[in-house]
Fold these 2 entries.
Entry 1:
Amino acid sequence: MKNSGFKFNPIMLALAVAIAATGCSDDDDNNDAPSPGNGETSSYRARATQMVEQMSVSEKLDVVSGPGSDQPINLTHDVSGAAGYINGVVNDNLNIPAVKLADGPAGLRINPTREGDSNTYYATAWPIGSVLASTWDKQLVEQVGEGQGNEGLEYGIDILLAPGMNIQRNPLNGRNFEYYSEDPILSGKMGTAMVNGMQSQGVAATIKHFVANVSETDRYYVDDIVEPRAMREIYLRGFQLAITNAHPLSLMTSFNKVNGTYVNERYDMLRSILRDEWGYEGLVMSDWYAGNIFAMNPLVPADPDAAVKQQMAGNNLLQPGNAKESLQQAYDAGTLTDDALDQNVIDILTQVQQTPTYRGYEYTNQPDLDSHAALARQVAAEGTILLKNTDTTLPITSGASLATFGVNQVNLYKGGTGSGDVNSAYAVNLLDGLSQQYQLNAELVDYYQRYFEENQYEEEVFFNTIIKCDDPMVSDNSDLMALVEDAAQHNDAAVISFGRQAGEADDRDSGRGDYLLSDSELDMVQQVSQAFHAQGKKVIVVLNVNGVIDTSEWATDVDAILLPYMGGQESGNAVADVLSGEVNPSGKLAQTMPLSYDDVPSSSTFEGLDTDSDGVIDETHMNEGIYVGYRYYTSFDVDVAYPFGYGLSYTTFDYGQPTIVENTLSTD
Ligand code: BGC
């Protein structure tokens, strides 16, 4: 993928000339400006400092508080489906355009269609963060970042609200799909690659959600009680690596509190650590309505001082907006100081100058979706993990006849829900992917398609409506039993697939149908395995899941297990590529799969406590400290189902006696 060159819009150019003629120049010679993200911000900061001197208090307050539901100030072009904006400034001296922000970690989230417009604005649904991390391939992840950045750029977006870099502390966090790993170093490296890729295209990346945002239940209120060492070594480390190595232009603070105070109100986090210690130069924005600024839950009254506390702590920008009035009152009362306000505006405008809109980029609305789809397929296949492969069950030669079981073959989950969802033009399910390379048992396909049509139901979740369908019990269904027996005689192998959906604003649960297989899923594994094994044939399970699920209960019943997680719009094709051996699976787990959920070190403290019995979870005690993921299992000799870093391939390897050649640890 090539970097896009900037083309200057004649209207912006005319404006710049007109402003220059009045003796001021907020568009001064940005043609030669350094590319965003190379860490060179001094010229932008100097210019932002001049700009602030030419702004009224009201204009400054507009910049630090997003427009909310109002029309953004000085919006030159809108992008339908943008998640937020930074207000622009227009006065006798300045003409700063509004800039546009859009989600998210698995691809650009904008509206795919627009009223009165026959064009479409689809984006690529890439494989989720856990898949990217499973590739352990920085170059490949950087390419995904380039693709995502290019789509943002060409669709007119300035700041991408991605990547998500929180630690997968517990398998049940609904948003784990947006994040990379249980390990901060791997997270930091993946985040670095993603930011570098995105920013190479001229758009800004936003690393989020800073920091220790490890659960979704009552996310606007929860207080994470975490010891300093764990905060430093586990929760801050990945962000630090991305900041040091990739200079993201933007960072989003999280919803949660840490040790009693909202992160976005903590001066120690936002100024002392981020800026003074790590030298962070980018802008800091809040998450949407974070910090109890409005009563998101009637059970918890809003804090009238939330906005000023965020400003005084160095949370530069309040998203999505509507905080101006409260900040004006704080300014009048002297609790919002000129110094803090000016500093926040300077931090924001330093980055705004580096955005495509400010630089006058003429976007085409025509990103290269075809090449991105090919890359998405490649990454989805390369990040797929082969968990089990007894007696070389896989690969299965193309052209073989397969019996496919489970409604998930039709009802693919391409990615998770919430702001991390992507409006892609299509998503290839397992059935469509496998049928490109195999002969599928037509009667079974027909059965599951019909069953899905007749039994699907909708579930409303944050931002989305998802379609679900529970698998039928096999053992008490004579029609289906007959199809299983027949398939076992006539097909070469069985492929069973399961799906698990999850996402923003809700956590998963440890029971049946979520962390554990449902009764009907277990029954399907047992019946299909018995029938196929009786004929000397193999059974393969494919896990189209948001995150870690149990395997202990059923893994011994089957011959091969493939973990593609959620592979994005090319999911089905990628699974077929791996099954057939077109691609050698070489994904390695970025998270541990425990023997039992109870073995997870945070199982007894997730998803927190309702300490005052008001119906809202308000505290999570992160008692495991630094012992998150493999750090716990290996330090305390706890057996696991599949360890961090695990993943088979179709090749066999021999290891000799290792020797130590370097006695220092590099994190490059
Ligand atoms: C999410 C953010 C997202 C924002 C804008 C919030 O609910 O937590 O990750 O970027 O919405 O859509």
Entry 2:
Amino acid sequence: MKRNLTAAALSVAALLAVAKPGTDPQMDKFIDDLMGRMTLKERIGQLNLGGVGSPKVVGSAKGLDVAIKEGLVSSIGGFDPKAAEDAQRFAEDNMRVFIPMITGLDVVHGYYTTFPIPLGSSSSWNLPLLEESARVAAREASAFGINWTFAPMVDISRDPRWGRVAEGAGEDPYLGSLVAQAMVRGYQGDDLQDPQSIMACTKHLVLYGASEAGRDYNTVSMDDVTAYNYYLPTYKAAFDAGAGSGMTSFNVVNGIPSTGNRKVMTDLIRDQWGFDGFIVSDANAIAEMIEHGVGDPQTVAEMALKAGTDMDMSASLYVACLEKSVAEGRVSEKEINTACRRVLEAKYKLGLFKDPWLYYTNKDKRQETILSPENLDVARRLARESIVLLKNSDKTLPLKPAKKIAVVGPLGQERGELLGTWSYGMSADTMSTIVEALQREVGPGTEVIFSQGSNWTEAPAIYKQGGKHPSDSLLMQAVADVADADVIIATVGEPAIWSGEAHNLTNPTLAEAQMNLLKAMKATGKPVVVVLMSGRPLIIPEIDEEFNTILQAWHGGTMAPEALADILTGKEAPSAKLTSTWPRNVGQIPLYYNALRTGRPYSGFWATTKYIDSTNDPLYPFGYGLSYNDYKYENLRADKLEAKGDNDKIRVTVDVTNLGTMPGKEIVQLYINDPVAKISRPMIELKDFAKVELAPGETKQVSFDVTADKLKYYDSELNYGWDEGDFIIFVGPDSKRIEKLNVKWTK
Ligand code: NOJ
């Protein structure tokens, strides 16, 4: 039976359900036995994750050592692997019943070797390569004892103001789900007990990416049809791929903080989706329920546990409150046991009971594991495939032989800033700058010079403005420095800290100081390549209007400079495509490609859904990205135009030809529209894609099997199915330039 998020269908029996033993009788027996030897306090202790941020503040204001001794620390999260190792060593020596710890960290886009921010790497649409990047991250992190990553972050978002768009895979549930699954597979591998695999954590449960107005932690209010069709699939996909854990979100879901929201944590995720791992709160989120206004510490701790949040990250409220709750009869021991069992099962599945030090097996190999040539190669390839060519209208790129290349802008000599949000900077010292990488790539015959040209910003309200010199004087210097250059590479955008958690912008555009630099560079009359590096889509209609050559290179990670040099020089042709819509102005937000139709479509005189001061169209649509090659699409065809029943399929084929002179990769996209359904359906929805390699002049037939599954959606009763009738299948290089085929599907 399906229960929706708003239906209040909770039975007391469900609340009191005993922990459902897993399917592994040996594990069940082991855990029964272990739990039988643990006191109530120790079982509650297994629900406490200590140490995120500072490993000392944990366990109801006790020092870490006291808390560990009393059995109040289940697992350690934190940035200091040495402290985590010491904590477990101390636990082994001092706990009454020693239970190994899980060590968690936000290994979001790499550990030492840092990959592009997830929004950037999703633009590669290269699932095997993304999986490889997560494998590398798992190998590096596990060499330091880390066996749990707080990733993947799979929140769908349609709002570039929200700083955390950087951490997700964009706006589309289909692509987002595949990326989520690739990352889970990469982190966890085939065997969670492999000391080079780490447990994934699907976050943030749920709907976090829809925070109102792009303000982090803000209210989310959403109807069920929207949630089920567009925002929930990525979480489910990550769990379906086997993610061992999940993390709650900071937002409310329909008025109830998600951390204490039983309809989400239990009815949806466990009962409907069948997830049987454990759920950790986001950092301090149980305590933040007090601030949300739903109760005092005792109440919120009980609410969160009863909702199905098994582990308390850094609020220490479970260890502070739950014994009392049991003593006073508001929480049953069974409820504690259910949560405790889930945590112990995860430890068992990670192999920690066989060997608490399993994840230190590769400690001796740390130095050869981190930043190895193979790992850096994955980073370079992924960074390359993440760089989106937005414009190249006079074919300035790839760069022609030149005597002198001038790199200007605040990113040209940076290292750590290119790593982006959720990176620990551990590779920064080993990195090249863009100037260095480009110099190496073009060779000694070409001089590459640098002139900063501007600070990040001169706007006093935004921190991280810049250095000692005001932008005006940097700009004058740059104009002089570029005087005899043949071409200007303007590396502009955001420092890492302008995106990520709690870093939202009301106007995500290029800062004025940097825009002035671009204008001054244009005024020189020299060709200017605008290289944007940012943690989010930027609103840049003026740049699009004024400049012929624009690359979006995100925060590309450890190998960002080399990857950029590869693309600039034409060592590789760009192949990335945007995974979110780029609006023309803030007023258009939220703007996304899979929007519903209205009753008065935007056309003609009565264009009532159009703004009077702006077009509705985005600056760059979802799926958009150019290459140095043009690709021709022709002969869109299907093996049949009518299909019948659940198991039928229509094979759709298109011929794609590389008209250019370079080997390239093209992302061929398939969209579907259901013109008449039980509810209004999006104009188009991505349902398949292929990234195909094409030699110069080569034509490939690219085929997709459209199955009835691809026609399914959740209706207003939240039934998942498809309706018979007409469907339109579209194929093309992005969500705008698509050709269509009309087909019919009967039951
Ligand atoms: C808060 C963030 O929302 C979450 O994504 C992260 O995993 C935790 N802090 C732990 O660092």
